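User: Show me a protein chain along with its predicted structure.
Assistant: Here is one chain, sequence first, then structure tokens.
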Amino acid sequence: MQIELGTRRLSYDDAGEGDPVVFVHGFPHHRKLWAPQLRALSGQYRAIALDLPGFGESDMPERFTIETWADGLARFLDAIEIQRAVIAGLSMGGYITLAFWRLHRDRVTALVLADTRAGADTEEGKQKRRETIELARREGPTAVARAMLPGMVGKSTREREPSVVATMRAMLESASVDSIVGASEAMMNRPDATASLATIDVPTLIIVGDEDVLTPPKESRAMHTAIADSRLEIIPGAGHVSNVERPAAFNQVLSEFLGGV
């Protein structure tokens, strides 16, 4: 599906009926990252996954910032006539989800924070972003995908699930150079969201793969400690894209959580 937001088109998948759950993908993914969750939830919920501006089939944004994406998500909800929803974000999508809470908390029924962190980039993290930008400009998305894949997918998945690895490689390679550069700069310049965690007063599920080396479980434990009454689930045998690597385990935890919201 596509919808016009101002002068730009945004693409999304919208499956099922019921209480809305909106999924926000990570970097450099697109909405099909959440295909296993839309299939699992559409029998009970209205499950929606969008291509962030600049990714998938959505048009490029005017500028790349985490806050701009969060505001755009609010406009998207207006356009599809949703007042409040469960917002679920993975990795960069988690940064956007936390920004959405800060900017539009009255639109949030519950939060799902998957394989993400609240803190800003360290200097080491910023340097890695700069290296990704340089690699994208010099050699293109295929080189970026090759460099990112070992960190993106857990060790167990790389050893046992070649089809998952191939699917993720294709997704990473689909991003444009401009999107890789713009999103990397957006993440590098994002504010620290740690202080806002204590303000979260809606049901919150935190999920992380136990083999996630990009946003390791210690980051999720820190968020769990800071968010009152939050629920933490660590998925064994999964890396940074735990929802794709162990979809059955991820969906079970997610469904149990949503059932209690």
